[in-house]
Amino acid sequence: MNGTRARLGWRCRRGTRELDLLLATYLEQAYDQAPVPEQAAFESLLALPDPELAALLSGTSVHPTAALNALADKIRAQLAS
Known about the structure:
Blueprint: H1 3-11, H2 17-29, H3 36-46, H4 50-58, H5 66-80
Helix pairs in contact: 2-5, 3-5
């Protein structure tokens, strides 16, 4: 595992099982194949405070940045499949 993936893995650990599952699943299954802009959006997503991140990933809020909303939709859909 390279340094970036290891760092992202630690940042995916948010302290709630739901967030941990959503973020770690995306990191393991989709991050490496994602285009660079989507990878950057994932890093921005991880920088959000936990309550804002939880609301975005649960679909109860919308972020002003379209790329973060699209990624949140993709992460939710990935878990549902």
